[in-house]
Write a structure and sequence with these properties.
348 residues, Rossmann fold, Dihydrodipicolinate Reductase, domain 2, eight-stranded mixed sheet, six-stranded parallel sheet, 9 helices
């Protein structure tokens, strides 16, 4: 009888958290830059029994007040060098505008702290090499916050790549496009502080997870173009984030690029804060010698038993943003405390 049957979910239960003894050691971590993204870092780190958040740093008193009132942080500084000298944290999470990533990371590494920095790693390759040099000299860990490596869609495609389902990936198309999504907070529109606009803020995520799925081939050449046509003007069209600071906006609205790799593969990239398109897009698709696919929806296109087939997963875990932040920070903590392998090291 149907009304007497037992469905597959009726006995399902959330897996109980393991009851462990208190951790033998804890990672003392400081947050440098207490803006919006730092709150997600703090929420994730506070859930880890082997982590203590020991300090927060920001030049804005209002943000330090938030750290005290919302998260009960008591060691608060407006000078990160003073914090490094007085607190001596084991590690730091750098959540500042992009132009500050390199100097803060280098000083923290020189002070003996492990470092995870939000993406992008720095403003240019010279700064990245400085950070890598400081990490090597200090013997500390340096990680970059590319959380989309941890996304279940990405991991599914990486597993399929490793099993040989794609053969040689020849072409990848990356799209990180907003129809009208110019940030109206932070300094995302200021090139001198960020290094660029949607390509360095959004495109870098999709490019990075696609490059990771490809097996991280070495790039040998790149070309592209950028256009600014909306962000530097007052906005009079209803949008999700109106009232951005158009007076200081000096980054691109739309960027496109073409990257060629040592193995002959090619990547095409499109990124926008504002573009006249049907809807926002966050995706990459690709073609290989034995199969292709897409990130969203997560799909594999291949041939099987004389038939062209599209393979979709019956189940994948959730890829919510907070969960991805937690995953990348968990990997960083494991690397610092237990010498686990970093999934997104600075060399990435």
């Amino acid at each position: 009888m149907v009304d007497r049957s037992v469905s597959t979910d009726s006995l399902g239960r959330d897996q109980a958290a393991a009851v462990d003894s208190p951790p033998k050691k804890k990672l003392k971590i400081a947050i440098i830059g207490c803006g919006g993204i730092s709150e997600l870092h703090i929420q994730a780190l506070r859930s880890m029994a082997d982590v203590d958040i020991v300090a927060g740093v920001d030049i804005k008193p209002r943000r330090l007040q938030v750290m005290q009132q919302k998260f009960s942080l008591t060691h608060l500084y407006d000078d990160y060098l003073r914090m490094l000298a007085e607190v001596k944290p084991d590690a730091v999470s750098v959540c500042t505008p992009n132009s500050l990533h390199a100097p803060m990371a280098v000083h923290a590494l020189q002070a003996g702290a492990h470092v995870i920095t939000e993406k992008p790693m720095a403003m240019n390759p010279i700064e990245c090499r400085q950070m890598l040099g400081a990490a090597k000299k200090s013997g500390r860990k340096l990680a970059v916050g590319f959380q989309y490596r941890y996304h279940p869609h990405t991991q599914m495609l990486v597993r399929a790549r490793d099993s040989g389902q794609f053969g040689d990936v020849m072409f990848v198309k990356c799209q990180a496009l907003r129809r009208r999504g110019i940030p109206n907070w932070g300094v995302f529109g200021r090139k001198e502080l960020q290094g660029g606009g949607p390509m360095i803020d959004l495109g870098v995520h999709v490019m990075e997870m696609a490059h990771y799925m490809m097996g991280s081939p070495r790039p040998v050449s790149a070309a592209g173009n950028i256009w600014t046509y909306l962000g530097h003007k007052p906005g009079n069209v209803a949008s999700m984030w109106p009232g951005w600071d158009h007076a200081t906006y000096n980054v691109e609205d739309l960027a496109v690029g073409h990257i060629r790799f040592e193995n002959g593969a090619v990547m095409q990239v499109e990124a926008s804060f504002a573009a006249h398109i049907a809807a926002d897009i966050w995706n990459f698709s690709f073609m290989g010698t034995r199969g292709g696919g897409s990130w969203d929806p997560p799909t594999i296109h291949t041939d099987s038993a004389g038939t062209m087939v599209n393979i979709t997963p019956a189940f994948l875990p959730s890829g919510d943003f907070a969960g991805l932040i937690s995953a990348k920070l968990r990997n960083f903590v494991d690397a610092c405390l237990y010498d686990a392998e970093l999934m997104a090291p600075g060399e990435t």
